[in-house]
Give the backbone structure.
Amino acid sequence: MKITVIIGTEVKGCTYHIKEAFLDVLRPGSEITEFYLPKDLPHFCRGCKTCFLQSEELCPHADYVGPIWDSILEADLLVLTSPVYALRTTAQMKSLLDHLCVHWMVHRPDERMFGKKAVVLTNAIGVFNGGAHKDLITSLRWLGVSHIKKLGIGLMEGVFWPELSPQRRQAIIQKVQSLARKYQTNDSARKGLKVRTLFAITRLMHQGAARKEDPLSADNQYWLDKGWIRL
Ligand SMILES: Cc1cc2nc3c(=O)[nH]c(=O)nc-3n(C[C@H](O)[C@H](O)[C@H](O)COP(=O)(O)O)c2cc1C
């Protein structure tokens, strides 16, 4: 199984240990590729819109974003993991999500996303992981991922992994590894109702817009080339 992991921090702290516990279960027989943020994408989206209007290959940060996107497309399982900052995901993770907007349904989705599975793993000192989950799941959904499972860990005892009690660390590891065991068999996900609905709505949107355009926008040319719309 190919697993692509995006880690929303470079700190080798709680996020790192939780991620390692998850991967330990899946490591045998898996090919794992990891991206640490911001190291592997040290830039914010500049808002130039070149990706939307021309091509993502012309993005000023394509040398960073391209390998991450290619790895996402090749993966069977995606793992997005992040600490909670200000009740949300980290800015560096959000920066990657911003760079991937060009592949949302409203622009140029890739059908390889439709059969993927994704796991969202977050951790916070308190119990409020929901905002960070929402950030990550919203993007995954619009990118076309149907199967998304989330797990939010409330660290409760502190923010430094070695300072958590052995019992707390063990409880966290058990929880994370019980989720990981569900992914030991590598079968692809079915396209779910939410993704089908988003695709159907955006198809109508692209179809309607394309009929009025001359020349076609990069987005609608893509939909036409895919055979998803007709003129
Ligand atoms: C800038 C910053 C903002 C944070 N905001 C929150 C927060 O809103 N809610 C919360 O429960 N914990 C918050 N925390 C605590 C982190 O979630 C916690 O430090 C992190 O989960 C530990 O994982 P790490 O060792 O991988 O960094 C914040 C931490 C930092 C550094």
